[in-house]
Design a protein that fits this description.
Blueprint lengths: L1 E6 L4 H13 L2 E9 L6 H10 L4 E6 L1 H15 L10 H20 L3 E3 L8 H12 L4 E3 L10 H10 L13 E4 L4 E4 L12 H4 L14 E8 L2 E5 L2 E2 L2 H14 L4 E7 L5 E7 L1 H17 L2 H19 L6 H13 L5 E8 L2 E8 L7 H4 L11 H9 L1 H11 L8 H15 L1
Parallel strand pairs: 1-2, 1-4, 2-3, 4-5
Antiparallel strand pairs: 6-7, 7-12, 8-9, 8-13, 9-10, 11-12, 13-14
Helix pairs in contact: 1-6, 3-4, 4-5, 8-9, 10-11
Length: 421
């Protein structure tokens, strides 16, 4: 019999895939659940996999690795996709693919199956992650081959086989959740003109209008770009993100409604909840504003944008991603300090920032004249800085009359120059 390792979440898609694989392949299925911090009853999910035909079900707890090796690199880069998306699903899929390959090797499987659809980004991320470590393994993606066309078809598929449906039809959003975020797609979101039904959709965050009428202040400490404490209390990465998810979620922050460009070319709409991540991105950027010089910060913005595109597109295990992350790491050597933010009804604003490596110097920046800055120096600086502007102006304002001598032109330009001085 063929041995197949299935990326199993216990949701609708992967619950359908187990009986479908058994009906279409002479196979033995090992379901692998990868714990990247999603809210899940693993014992119930393991039993569901066995009840629907899997020979075994394993749970791999990789939350620590997810935070340290995938979330923190994205955070240090302030990597976003299309200005909004904090890459919650995009950062988790490469790690899941890596874990699937590990189990496939351990169990001597010939193939890996996943439940990503033929329209989505995840099929790209899973496939590229698997190929990076095991180009010899077959990849089975039922959504690209079976005749089921919708989630309603999947529900009927299970009902005809008298298998339990792991969801309610009225709550049939396509969701992905992990420690970093929850995404929602489908139902009313398929029409971009529809307002999201936040009151019934959200799982981690309250609608902003339902948040408390009093602001909440949070202080986050960073060490070389990595958050290490909340309100003065040191925490490991997993605990820190969960703490900020709870605080941010209660204040309605971190909601993103985005029509994005998928890897396969179409546009899709999703609503994302990333309360803790949004606080961390904001705080980290505030700290960089005082710790990085202008040129480094400006170039790092370009690197962060590119890294967001690379991660979104599934190219985590590539030389380019590693090189971009190496540059980012080099910029974070001085990104150490404390940031205080104010949360209020969905908004995040700065309430103070400090760092032992701060490049802000009050003696220079103050309106009071001091020894470190001579106002008179500005004249020579501006003259050199604006020299191209002056040269062009001389060309435009100089005499254009036919027959004007070179000497006349130079006299006119000299007068203009003296006035400018």
């Amino acid at each position: 019999m063929k041995k197949i390792v299935l990326a199993y979440s216990g949701g609708l898609d992967t619950t359908v895939i187990i009986p479908w694989l058994k009906e279409n392949y002479d196979c033995e299925i090992a379901a692998v659940c990868v714990d990247v911090g999603q809210e899940a009853d693993w014992e119930t999910i393991k039993q569901r996999a066995l009840d629907t035909g899997a020979k075994a079900c394993y749970v791999a707890d990789v939350k620590k690795e997810y935070v340290e090796d995938y979330i923190w690199p994205a955070l240090k880069a302030n990597a976003l996709y299309e200005d909004k998306y904090l890459l919650g699903t995009s950062t988790a899929r490469p790690l899941i693919a890596k874990v699937l390959v590990d189990y496939a090797r351990k169990l001597k499987a010939e193939a890996i199956a996943h439940g990503a659809t033929g329209k989505g980004n995840d099929q790209v991320r899973f496939d590229l992650g698997i190929i990076a470590f095991a180009p010899d393994l077959e990849i089975i993606a039922p959504w690209r081959t079976w005749k089921l066309k919708s989630r309603e078809d999947e529900i009927r598929y299970l009902q005809r086989r008298k298998l339990p449906v792991p969801m309610k039809k009225k709550d049939a959003y396509s969701r992905d959740d992990n420690l970093w975020h929850i995404s929602h797609e489908g139902l009313e979101l398929e029409d971009p003109f529809n307002e999201p039904s936040l009151k019934t959709m959200l799982k981690m965050t309250v609608p902003p209008e339902k948040a408390p009428n009093k602001p909440e202040y949070v202080e986050i400490s960073f060490d070389k770009g990595i958050p290490v404490a909340v309100n003065g209390k040191k925490m490991d990465g997993v605990t820190l993100i969960r703490t900020l998810n709870e605080i941010g979620g209660a204040n309605g922050v971190g909601l993103v409604d985005l029509v994005e460009n998928r890897v396969v070319g179409m546009k899709s709409r999703g609503v994302y909840e990333t309360p803790g991540g949004s606080i961390l991105y904001y705080a980290h950027q505030e700290l960089e504003h005082i710790c990085l010089d202008r040129q480094t910060y400006a170039f790092k913005q370009q690197v962060g944008q590119k890294l967001g595109e690379v991660i979104y597109g599934g190219f985590w295990f590539t030389p380019l991603r590693e090189a971009l992350s190496a540059f980012v790491d080099s910029t974070q050597k001085t990104v150490t300090g404390q940031v205080k933010v104010k949360l209020y009804k969905g908004s995040i604003t700065s309430a103070g920032v400090s760092s032992p490596y701060s490049l802000y110097n009050a003696k220079i920046a103050s309106f009071t004249t001091g020894e470190l800055y001579n106002h008179g120096d500005a004249k020579g600086f501006i003259r050199l800085y604006g020299l191209p502007v002056l040269v062009r102006a001389l060309m435009q304002k100089g005499p254009q009359k036919a027959g004007a001598s070179v000497e006349d032109r130079e006299k006119r330009r000299t007068k203009i120059t003296e006035k400018w001085d």
